[in-house]
Q: What sequence folds into this?
């Protein structure tokens, strides 16, 4: 049987499959269903310095082959995540965790990272820069090279753990942002976050989401994600965690061929709570089918030369 | 919570656009009436949450109204077909503090989960009274089912075509009650709350991503902080609900 082992920024993973932030809570709901130690890692719910309720409901809308969400980063705040959620998660999951952090100013990010940095079980930080910058006219950090670089550099100063920057796809040229983060010291990149979308209810003739627009994810966005991972792989030297619509072992391999060293699975967990487990169990079969002995060798395999 | 494959044993139309489906499978995970299932349907990305109307050791009953593609799809299922369900989701109703004469108030397709609740209350030796609210006579379902349990049943119709004319609140002073259990649309909840003389529990609906607590899609702000309708609810106590904030 082939090996599914990969490494991400020097940390070893049994397999490349990581539930994506916001779709797996703090893990323990899934631990009721299966032993979540089969996962490569877990990217836990986006954590901010202050507790947040998020946006008004309805904040979920179904789409063809996917969904919109406008949850708006509901979380109990970094301190409570550290003292309440992570101890609970660590009881059911024994591997390095990925800490997903969000903020609305550079200081928000560094303050939350400083708190979470005290937790040894955190293997990587994943910095979500798709949030609006309150000091930058509300434009997302991830849509400007300057802001993205500023967050990256500031976070790098407050932690010694590897820092992945999670990129927004809602930009003209994602490779420019990727390069700016790499130059500012990022150890890796995660992509993609959700695409901005909207659905309108024909009965009420109004947007379904109270927030009007929301983040689009699920199988429908996979080709966009594969294209962006492919482009970013050619633009930077740091490792990439690829995500967007992954629901099968074949999808994992496609994303890795595009350039990902590991992958995240998001919306699929909501529709099918066993999604990650099923993918992991199916990987050896699909690897064999496509003549892959070592999964880690296929990263970027779709590129010439 | 568990994922289980159930076999449809019947799926029949019981009122305009309202269907009753009986499924056979392992129901041992269900802990309280008022819990719900989340149904996977081919061709739809998200599952569909439907309350458990009744259950015993090897079967469960769902009552649903066709309001869109998913429930239309469900209505076309034939007996013998299999369904992939996440079962026993949510907290369900707590019958401990109900007193001897709880009042059950259901509106439209909010009625189903109250049936298993009613059975449980009776099995505990209590004497529930029931108010079922509909718009008009042709929409009425489950009046006899509740009567057959032996409880006093008041039916209200908005147009007066059957039973008491008006909304469910028109029947609330017809009986002395010790507690309220309610499920139905939000405007009904507000009216019930405004007329309520006792504590009670209300079962909420919200658009759901997962139905089992993972996505934070369904949150409701309560007096005790943010709660997930799917996991911490769908049943909330009258005292914890932020009534003024409900849209
Ligand atoms: C806990 C709970 C229990 C429920 N119990 C029952 C029941 O016993 N009987 C019954 O008839 N209905 C019940 N509903 C409502 C039922 O879930 C919706 O009518 C159904 O999801 C509509 O799907 P659709 O594809 O037909 O409609 P569409 O409008 O096409 O659905 C589009 C999306 O919106 C969601 N949605 C639409 N209406 C609702 C709603 N009212 N609540 C939550 N999500 C909605 C759907 O799930 C889907 O994701 C319950 C809802 C919840 C949350
Ligand atoms: C309900 C929901 C909540 C999410 N919350 C977060 C979050 O808190 N932080 C974050 O970086 N990404 C969040 N995301 C984005 C996902 O992590 C992922 O990047 C995106 O959904 C694409 O993957 P998918 O198509 O597999 O879902 C969320 C996605 C969904 C569906
Ligand atoms: S629907 Fe996902 S948390 Fe309630």
A:
């Amino acid at each position: 049987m082939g090996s599914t082992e990969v490494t991400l920024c020097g940390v070893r993973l049994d397999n490349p499959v990581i539930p994506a932030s916001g779709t797996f809570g703090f893990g323990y709901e899934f631990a009721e269903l299966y032993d979540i130690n089969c996962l490569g890692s877990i990217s836990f719910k986006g954590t901010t310095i202050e507790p947040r309720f998020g946006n008004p409901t309805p904040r979920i809308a179904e789409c063809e082959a996917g969904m919109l969400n406008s949850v708006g980063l509901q979380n109990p705040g970094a301190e409570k995540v550290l003292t309440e959620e992570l101890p609970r998660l660590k009881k059911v999951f024994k591997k390095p965790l990925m800490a997903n952090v969000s903020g609305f100013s550079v200081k928000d990010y560094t303050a939350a990272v400083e708190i979470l940095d005290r937790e040894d079980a955190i293997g990587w930080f994943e910095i979500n820069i798709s949030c609006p910058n309150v000091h930058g006219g509300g434009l997302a950090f991830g849509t400007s090279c300057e802001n993205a670089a500023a967050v990256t550099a500031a976070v790098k100063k407050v932690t010694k753990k590897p820092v992945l920057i999670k990129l927004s796809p809602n930009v003209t040229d994602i490779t420019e942002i990727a390069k700016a983060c790499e130059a500012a010291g990022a150890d890796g990149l995660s992509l993609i976050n959700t695409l901005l979308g909207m659905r309108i209810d024909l009965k009420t003739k109004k947007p379904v989401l109270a927030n009007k627009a929301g983040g689009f994810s699920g199988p429908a966005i996979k080709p966009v994600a594969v294209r962006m991972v492919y482009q970013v792989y050619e633009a930077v030297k740091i490792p990439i965690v690829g995500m967007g619509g992954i629901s099968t072992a074949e999808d994992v391999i496609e994303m890795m061929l595009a350039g990902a060293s590991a992958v995240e699975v998001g919306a699929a967990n909501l529709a099918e709570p066993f999604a990650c487990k099923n993918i992991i169990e199916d990987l050896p079969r699909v690897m064999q089918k496509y003549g892959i002995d070592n999964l880690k060798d296929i990263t970027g395999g779709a590129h010439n030369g | 919570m568990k994922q289980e494959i159930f076999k449809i044993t019947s799926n029949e139309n019981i009122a305009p656009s309202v269907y009753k489906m009986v499924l056979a499978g392992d129901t041992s995970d269900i802990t309280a009436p008022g819990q719900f299932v989340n149904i996977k349907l081919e061709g739809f990305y998200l599952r569909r949450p439907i309350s458990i109307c009744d259950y015993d050791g090897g079967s469960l009953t769902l009552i649903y109204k066709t309001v869109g593609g998913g429930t239309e799809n469900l209505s076309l299922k034939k007996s013998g077909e299999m369904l992939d369900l996440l079962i026993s989701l949510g907290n369900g109703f707590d019958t401990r503090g109900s007193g001897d004469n709880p009042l059950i108030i259901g509106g439209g397709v909010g009625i189903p989960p109250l049936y298993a609740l009613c059975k449980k209350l009776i099995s505990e030796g209590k004497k529930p009274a029931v108010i079922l609210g509909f718009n008009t006579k042709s929409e009425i379902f489950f009046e006899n089912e509740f009567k057959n349990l032996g409880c006093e049943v008041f039916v209200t119709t908005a147009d007066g075509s059957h039973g008491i004319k008006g909304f469910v609140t028109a029947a609330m002073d017809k009986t002395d009650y010790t507690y309220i259990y309610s499920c139905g649309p939000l405007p009904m909840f507000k009216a019930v709350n405004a007329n309520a003389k006792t504590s009670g529990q209300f079962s909420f609906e919200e658009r759901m991503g997962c139905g089992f607590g993972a996505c934070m899609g369904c949150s409701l702000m309560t007096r005790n902080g943010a709660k997930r309708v799917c996991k911490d609810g769908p049943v909330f106590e009258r005292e914890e609900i932020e009534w003024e904030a409900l849209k």
Observations:
- The interface with chain A takes residues 1-3, 40, 44-47, 86, 206-210, 212-221, 226, 231 of chain B (CB under 8 Å).
